[in-house]
Design brief:
The protein contains 11 helices and 13 strands. It has 335 residues and is of the alpha/beta class. Bound molecules: oxa(dethia)-CoA. The site of oxa(dethia)-CoA has 19 residues, from α2, α6 and α8.
Length: 335
Amino acid sequence: MYQSKISGLGHYVPENVVTNDQLAERIDTNDAWIQERTGIKERRHIVKGDGNSTSVMGVKAAKIAIERAGIEANDIGLIIFATLSPDMYFPGGGVQVQDMLEIDTCPALDVRNQCSGFVYALSTADQFVKTGMYEHVLVIGSEHHSGGLDFTDRGRSVSVIFGDGAGAAIVSRSESDGQGILSTHLHSEGKHKDELALQGPSTRYWVPQILKENPQENIPYFPYMNGQLVFKNAVVRFSEVIKEGLDANGLDVSDIDMLIPHQANLRISQFIQRKFGLRDDQVFNNIQKFGNTTAASIPIALTEAWEAGKIKKGDLVVLAAFGSGFTWGSVIIRW
Ligand code: UT7
């Protein structure tokens, strides 16, 4: 078995900043409610004509990660693309990215695990590198939420939360023993599949069928979220899966140098921080600036934390995610 490590990171967010006050001009919400319940001050939205899409943002993040890893695009053995908001129904974002990066032929795989997508993708990359099958795997989390949210009063509890952006990591074979990805732990519980979901368009809700069945009454093609149930499960599962990862490596909460939780809600991150007794400098949050970017949130946060010098060689870095499915997972890294 080989070791695997993150050898390069990058992120990209659209330039267009949307503040809470700007949202309040469109829907019945206000800055105080959004900040109080979620910690979010602003988020980024793609605007028509700016050239961005889920895969285009993924490519922009990937190019930075590739350069920082000191490799060429054609050195990549596998692309793993995590998103819940692909450019098109099929084919997936992986092959779109492959085409834009001008990579001749390599496998491209799409991961559909929503907020846990990046953690699932990273775990998959880790397995392929550890077995020796690939030397460099490109892992991307990217989301274009703003085009598909319900910006009417009906959708306000969901639409104010989500933002657009992308993050990418190169997972490479590591020479140094004990450095890199120590373990990954993944879980899901399908009985909660309908509690945070976008049902259509899909084979269950083809567009012609929706149009026939009076779309005004029941439109399943905006995301639905049972916010309180998701919140309650999130705080439990985040804690469990972080502890599971630490225990598997004989580590303790006090060993954590940097926890990067999926940026679902600042209140969830703060709950975990309090529960584990972590200092402010041991937990990284940037939901205030970007909202919840689902599969992109961890790689964006990881990149920002690394760029800011908050992650140093030898640090114990913990990534944890929870979201739709429900799915959740953690990654323990010795940097
Ligand atoms: O990343 C994937 C995982 N996702 C999560 O982990 C999200 C977990 N859930 C949450 O973060 C929270 O449940 C939310 C932030 C989504 C909602 O916060 P909440 O405290 O659970 O609010 P609520 O849905 O229970 O609504 C409370 C009140 C309601 O009004 P009434 O019935 O008390 O009069 C809502 O109508 O807040 C109202 N409300 C709003 N008011 C202003 C809901 N959305 C808004 C809004 N602006 N945007």
